[in-house]
Amino acid sequence: MNKLYFVTGSQDLYGEDTLKQVAEDSKTIAGYLNEQLKQIVEIEWKPTVRNSEEIINVCTQASMDADCVGIITWMHTFSPAKMWIKGLQLLTKPLLHLHTQANEKLPYATIDMDFMNLNQSAHGDREFGFICTRLKIAREVVVGYYKHNHVIDKVRRFGEIANAVAFSKNLKLAMFGSNMREVAVTDGDRVESQIKYGWEVNYYGIGDIVAIADQITDQELDDLISEYKSIYDMNTEDMDAVRVQAKYEIALKRFMKNGGFGAYTDTFQDLHGLKQLPGLATQRLMATGIGFGAEGDYKSAALNAILCRMAQNRKGATGFMEDYTYDLTPGKEMVLGAHMLEVPPQFAATKPAIEVHPLGIGDKEPPARLVFDGVEGEAIAVCMVDMGDRFRLIAAKIELIKQPKKMPKLPVARIMWKLKPDFETGAAAWLYAGGGHHTVVSTALTMDDMRIFAKLTGTELVAIDEDTRLNALQKELGI
Ligand code: MN
User: What is the rounded CA–CA span in Å between residue 446 and residue 396?
Assistant: First the structure.
């Protein structure tokens, strides 16, 4: 299981008794956090650090430990921050500065200078905060008594985001085919993506999937078709087309597992040897947390996998989406989000139905896909673009809504949403920010999650929410 180191700062000045108490208190706090966060991450208590050497040691250990996804620091007493400089320079993992106390209330009747010397994080954490800011270290600061729910919630959120950052650093992504011809926003600098986020993005021929698909037995296909029948409505007579997708599902799963891949892309322009564009197959893989980006969109595929990892322990849906078309009725403007096929079933509000329809693009056989109406609720839509000299995340708060009328002739899964602060502002803001048509939508994650993720990965974030004003935004963007 992933770990967060819990590191308490002090110094030798205070003597044995005080340091003994510091160790006991920090163990108690680490133990409490460990219990509260046990679904997310293990909190590993570390012995109090008292000098530069001990700080260098623990920061080096955190950076080298593959299971360690971040560290929590807390200055129970004063801990002179020059001691922290070299260690923090060696730290490569996300940092949470927990500004807390062992005690919730002041012991008014008994407080004396011994108590003051021991419980002075108000003092010591300011010294630590200064050196982090001076060193320009991105970190999350959480303030409050460690047993208070709002504090636990924020530490838990940090754990989830630290898990996602670690996942990103280890992410391998397979591109079947390349970026769709002539498309700009889905493309990007894959070398820089690896330098900055760790993603190993490599090209594979779609023939690799064909070769695996050819080995799949009738029994395997029968079993998977039975599974489909038990979960979905079967709104088609064309079981041959469904079997083709079942075959792709097994083949893709096998390829991903064998190569340790967490995400993939494909493109309808390169399906050599495949009869259909993977639709149902890709939807089913996305349901397991595998990231997907259509038309060679590797950034969306990676983001999809990372945000699914971040949301793993939360309720709600997270997955690949595309802004497709609008309802522009004044005052009731809505976005219809879908894709040619590949909408993840996490978004299903109704029982998905397997259907087979022509695609109208790509010159292949009609593919089987899952069709459903989408869930409702507050959500975010997130996109990553390559600005040439940096990556930019664009995130918008949106509200998923029930589709107002049936769409019996629309042969794909779909969700609908409203923009914030209103349609005109929200859409214009997205366009000014350079946001693309592919996004990852999540009802499980929030704008604050994106702010922290962007901060910890050193990524520019353009946030579009109820406070967005176009003039101010354009000024922020320098356009
Ligand atoms: Mn697309």
Answer: 10
235 Cα–ligand 1 center, Å: 25
Ligand 1 center from residue 296 Cα (angstroms) = 9
CA of 295 to the centre of ligand 1 (A): 6
134 Cα–ligand 1 center, Å: 43
Using the mean position of ligand 1's atoms as its centre, give its distance from the Cα of residue 294 in Å: 5
Q: Which long-range contacts (CB under 8 A, 24 or more apart) does 427-433 make?
A: 428/470, 429/396, 429/462, 429/464, 429/468, 429/470, 429/473, 430/394, 430/396, 430/464, 432/470, 432/473, 432/474, 432/477, 432/479, 433/392, 433/394, 433/462, 433/464, 433/473, 433/477
In CATH, which of 1.20.120, 3.20.14, 3.90.550, 2.60.120 is domain 172-477?
Answer: 3.20.14
Sheet holding 233-234, edge to edge: 233-234, 353-356, 368-371
pTM above 0.70, yes or no: yes
CA dist., res. 158 & res. 164, Å (int): 10
The answer, yes or no, to whether residue 361 has pLDDT greater than 90, is no
CATH of the structural domain 3-169, one choice from 3.30.1490.190, 3.40.50.10940, 3.30.428.70, 2.40.30.160: 3.40.50.10940
pLDDT at 122: 97
Q: How far is the CA of 254 from the centre of ligand 1 (A)?
A: 25
Q: Of 206, 190, 209, 187, whose CA–CA distance to 198 is shortest?
A: 190
Contacts of 345 (CB under 8 A, 6+ apart): 283, 284, 286, 287, 352, 370, 372, 413
Model confidence over 318-337: pLDDT tens digits? 999 999 999 999 999 999 99
CA 339–ligand 1 middle distance (angstroms):
6
Ligand 1 centroid–CA 70 distance in Å is 35
Distance 278 CA to ligand 1 centre (A): 14
